[in-house]
Amino acid sequence: MHTSFVLVSVETFREVIFYFIIYSFIGWLLENIYSFATTKKFFKPNFFLGPFKPMYGFAPVILVYLINQNMHLTTVIFLCFFIPTLVEYVSGLLLLKFFQRKWWDYSNLPLQLHGHICLPFSICWIFLSLLCVKIVHPGMISMYERIDQYWLLVWPTVALYFLAEMILAIRRHSTKELSDVKQTNQINK
């Protein structure tokens, strides 16, 4: 007897892509507003060329699919602390490992780990995540339901855009890394 096991339906995948894009864009806005408030510069260097921060897309999507109505508040708060902090730490490690660059550095803040995460920002993630899960996401669900018939038509193009953006970002930052190494080698000669 053959049984098929499907983790995610096409409809769920389409929905996840929608939320990922919205939250990646909101993350880009939040980071640039924070950058403007702290440095008076609105645009902060980004891994992607477009106005999206994937890290801010992954954490909320994971949270909204993990957290349910019956979950105890303590568990929800723990997840709102742990998931974004883990996503930020893993993102920081991967970016440093593959591109030898830090897009953020918490080394000068208290209770930090390798400059990738720190307790003050992890506490901020709790509040932002609770805001997202409890207030923003119900509105996103409603918006998704209203535009689903249109999203059905455009989501493959948007998904391809993100795939292209990822490939180009990896290539751009890898090329920059190779160029930086060549320059360093020539200077050292």
TrEMBL record:
Record-annotated membrane-spanning stretches? 16-34, 46-67, 73-96, 117-137, 149-170
Q: Which domain of life is it from?
A: Bacteria
UniProt KW keywords: Membrane, Transmembrane, Transmembrane helix
What Pfam families does the annotation carry?
ABC_trans_CmpB (PF06541)
Q: What is this protein called?
A: ABC transporter permease
Q: Look up and give the organism this protein is from.
A: Fredinandcohnia quinoae
